[in-house]
Structure formats: C-alpha cells, structure tokens
Amino acid sequence: LLEDIPGVRPAKKSPGATLSTYYLYMVDYDSAEYNGISRGRYLEALRKEGIPAGGGYVPLNKEPIVEKMLNSRAYKRLYSEERLKAYWEKNHCPNNDKVCERAFWLSHEVLEGSKDDVEQIAQAMRKVYHNREALG
Hints:
By secondary structure, the chain is an alpha+beta fold. The chain has helices at 39-48, 64-70, 73-78, 81-90, 94-102, 108-111, 115-130, 132-135, and strands at residues 8-10, 24-29, 53-54, 103-107.
C-alpha cells in the first residue's frame, strides 16, 4: 500500500531473514519528497489524520550511559585501555544514525485492525503527501 506514496518506504527484512514480528513496523521518511518538512512535522500531520506514528529510537551508542560505563572503575578493571579505546573507535554507527533521524514506526496495535483500517493508514499518508505544501 505504501509503494505509490512518495517519500515513505517500508523497511525491508535483512538478507536471509524469513520472519519479522512487526511489533514495530518501520518506515523510512524522506523529507526531500516533502519540501524539507521535518519528520516531526510529518508525524504531527499523520497524527491529525488519526494515525499514531512515532519517531522511534535515539542512537543508543551515543547515550551518556555508554561513556559513563566505559569510564567506570569496573570496566577499567575488566578491560584493557587498548580494548576500551578500540570500542570507542568502533562506536560510530552512521547507518543507525540515519535510521534514528529518518525512520518512523507504526506500532503493532495500529496494524491489528481490519483490512480497511490498514488501508486508512495509507490513505492518511497519501493525504499528507498531497497536502505537503500546507505543512511548511
């Protein structure tokens, strides 16, 4: 249902994956298709159409707890300085950053309705796209 809606693309399963729980249904949002309208503004417009979409996660590798943990006495006792330094150097996840910036989620509850209910999600997304000029 989302294939014909510019700027929204459902996430695909990783190669080799055969199942997904769809606890959260992830969609990639391309603001360029919406004249640069932020993901937050797009989500507000969806919510006004009755679709409770959410922004999802923040990059967990950038959370302050990670630095606190790696600088803790316990970790410094368990791991060598070289190993902790290597972790910091590898703690850059640009693809994850992109997902956290662009993606939004539909919760499983939204998708548990009838076929008509699910079709209303796509209709709302089409409506937001067609009215994108008014969002800016």
